[in-house]
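User: Hi! I'm working on a homework problem where we have to compare a predicted structure to a textbook description. Could you give me the structure for the chain below?
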Amino acid sequence: MTTGVSSTAPQRPLYLVLIVSSVIALCILGDSLMYSILPLEAANLGISLPLVGVLLSANRLVRLLSNAWASGAFERWGARGPFLIVTLLGLISTFLYGVGWGFALFLAARLLWGIAWSGLRQGGYEAVWHGGGAVKGRLTGFLWGVVRLGSALSVLAGGLLYDRFGYATTILAVTSVTALAIPVALLVRWPASAFLPHQSHKQATTSTATATANKSTQRRWRWQDWWRALQSPRARWLVIAAALHLYLSGVVVSTTSIFLAERLQLAENSLLFGLGVGSITGILQGARWLSDITVGPTIGRISDRIGQSRMALMLVSMGGSAIFGLAALPSIPLVLGCLFLYFLCDSGMTVTLSAAASGVALEQERPHVFIGLYTTAADFGSALGPLLAFSLGSYLGLPVTYTVTATLVILAVLRYRILERSRIAQPLPI
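Assistant: Happy to help. Predicted structure tokens:
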């Protein structure tokens, strides 16, 4: 394709992913900070505590619609314009946290952030695509590692600023840092086409007129397009596995403090190693985010060598064993070890399944459509987890809830692995 060729040469894949992930990491600072300080500041902001949960879930719910909008925009207009727009939306949403009071303004900011995140994440996938299929795991691990490093630094530094200087100063500081995302986004030199990695040489060198005509037919997105993207059983089970994986993650993350409080109460010990439940939960959650940058790229690189489906099955088996240990082991230190192992596997699963989704997308006629579907299914699972965790946990008990959900994830990943092996084992047509 020769349409929309930039006058400047595109950046190398790793450098492209570094710049794009840095933009996303700067934009996510405000969102990550809200999870730690909004419950503490809610009364002063005129927001009742029950509505805090609504605000923290609103950005996920709007993405069930905005993921399709984002994939359509990137497919129609290319990456540069939409990526700059969503970067600006991310900055505006962070700014709004500090300029007004009340639920309505915060709800608008959270919905705006959800739309921005749909586009930022789409840009991240597109950056990974340009590295080709052979290194998609490594690039995906690097992408999410840098993004989650931003989340971890936001929670740690933002918490210190909040304790020392208060809410208004903290939001002003975070907004000022987030503003750096705009000049960094302007440094991105996107390749001319998102489709070159999976097209043949003949397709890539078609005439400008034919390429433009083909692209114009791709601009009209319809809900039926998602159904077409799921015609392959392998694609269907990958989407199901991702949704269930993030559902389990949402259940465990949202109930960790309650689960630990119950276990400590049963052990007649409200403190462990001199720390309370809140501190222990914070340490575990911080380790979960930091593991994205420490082990994410390594897991991605290994998955490139042995295959994403095999890596996913290994990780879900270890993570499932950790979940079963939570339900069965009596010792509190062993329970904490199981939680830590699960969070590591959870981080690795996100990288591995995202890399697998990039590979499946590049095999399809319209990669953006599949990624829009994949991210929407993942967001649905992620949003559903916290909403159902407490009701199911109170009815079945948290250990049973964890165990049943983990079993479903293992079965879905196993089915995806079987289909992937069948595809690889299929003889090539003569």
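For your comparison, note the following. The two ends are 29 Å apart (CA to CA). Residues 1-7, 194-218 have pLDDT under 50 and may be disordered. Good luck with the assignment!
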